[in-house]
Design brief:
This protein is α/β, with parallel strands linked by helices. The protein has two domains: 138 residues, Rossmann fold (3-Layer(aba) Sandwich); 181 residues, Dihydrodipicolinate Reductase, domain 2 (2-Layer Sandwich). The protein is 36% helix and 26% strand. The strands form three sheets. Strands 16-13-12-11-7-10-9-8-17 form a nine-stranded mixed sheet. The protein starts with 12 loop residues before the first strand and ends with a helix.
Length: 350
């Protein structure tokens, strides 16, 4: 790389895609059909998958992503390879001056994530992390309404991310793979990073890592975050509840449904047979236009490549998600709460 990184302007973005697994194929679908993208190269070790993708997209195929980075001039690289490959591929792309969109988690450990953050800062190359839920229309509208004052204070944020075990995941457990989504969303909604975490984990079907996490996050404002994340539930669930002074938001990531229940009048319960079984609050369904979060995420990344600016979810955000997830695992192992002051110090010196 020679000279500081600069945006490329309005021409089509030459993109390389590393990894054609579950998420990689979704990236391929969007990138190959995007009018502002020249999908120049793709890489995957599975020959059958690679050949089919190359024939469908017209991109140059490479069995090794490192060879793709060495041989093809690229403006941007999308890294959808397994987590263990994120650090070497991200560092290689940064070293060549290519902007990076790396699937979450940014890295498997805080130390590895720090290497990416430090390299991106030193080179001035933008790195966006694929926390795709930030681009869910329901999440974006929830953030807008909270910002508009629908909740003047937040009491608690509870997240449930559950489903059956995905055979594709072998290198990390459910905390680093899935809970990184939720700790990022909870921090974004709270508008602050947690200062203390606690967790319990279990390993039921995964051969090497935990597949269940119950976690607690304490925020400086006094808000509490609660996590229920597992690979044991037979049906997929992606839900979020935010409770505050004026009422409660309930969000379904999968259906992109968002409702708000106004705080109830506890002096007027609904009576059945002389008993008060509930206090019914007024429920409002927030109108939303459905959209594909991954497509919006890629559009945001391409805008940074063309025009510059900070990615919506940058490398530091991704590192915080890894740090919080790692601290949850530490807390579970120790059987006690873990303070995050040392994590904040690491960021200051990165």
């Amino acid at each position: 790389m020679s000279g500081p990184w600069t945006p490329i302007g309005d021409r089509p973005v030459r993109v390389g895609l590393a990894g054609l697994g579950s998420m990689g194929r979704n990236h391929l679908r969007i990138l190959a059909g995007h009018p502002g993208v020249d999908l120049a190269a793709i890489a995957d070790p599975v020959a059958e998958t690679l050949d089919a993708a190359a024939e469908a997209s017209g991109a140059l195929p490479f069995a090794e992503p490192q060879a793709m980075l060495d041989e093809v001039e690229l403006d941007a690289v999308v890294i959808a390879a397994p987590t263990t490959f994120h650090v070497p591929l991200a560092l290689a792309a940064i070293g060549r001056g290519a902007a990076v969109l790396v699937e979450k988690p940014l890295a498997a450990t805080i130390e590895e994530g720090l290497r990416i953050v430090a390299a991106a800062r030193a080179a001035g190359v933008p790195v966006q992390v694929g926390h795709v839920e930030r681009f869910n229309p329901a999440v974006l509208e929830l953030g807008r309404l909270i910002g508009a004052g629908w909740l003047t204070s937040i009491y608690s944020i509870a997240s449930r991310r559950a489903g059956p075990f995905p055979a594709r995941i072998r290198d990390v457990g459910v905390t680093v793979d899935l809970a990184t989504h939720d700790v990022d969303i909870l921090s974004w909604i709270a508008g602050e990073r947690p200062t203390r975490v606690y967790a319990e984990t279990a390993q039921r079907v995964h051969t090497t890592n935990e597949d269940l996490l119950h976690g607690l996050l304490n925020f400086p404002s006094g808000a509490t975050g609660m996590l229920d994340v597992n690979w044991l539930t037979p049906a997929k669930r992606r839900e979020l509840t935010v409770v505050g002074e004026e009422g409660m938001f309930e969000l379904d990531y999968l259906t992109q449904r968002l409702t708000f229940t106004r705080a109830t009048d506890t002096t007027n319960p609904r009576l059945i047979g002389g008993y008060a079984p509930t206090f019914a609050g007024e429920v409002v369904e927030v109108p939303l236009e459905a959209a594909e979060p991954l497509a919006a995420e890629i559009d945001a990344f391409l805008d940074v490549v063309r025009n510059g600016g900070r990615p919506v979810v940058d490398a530091e955000d991704g590192l915080w998600a890894v740090a919080i997830a790692t601290s949850l695992l530490t807390a579970a192992g120790l059987g006690r709460a873990v303070e995050l002051a040392q994590v904040a110090d690491l960021f200051a010196t990165a």
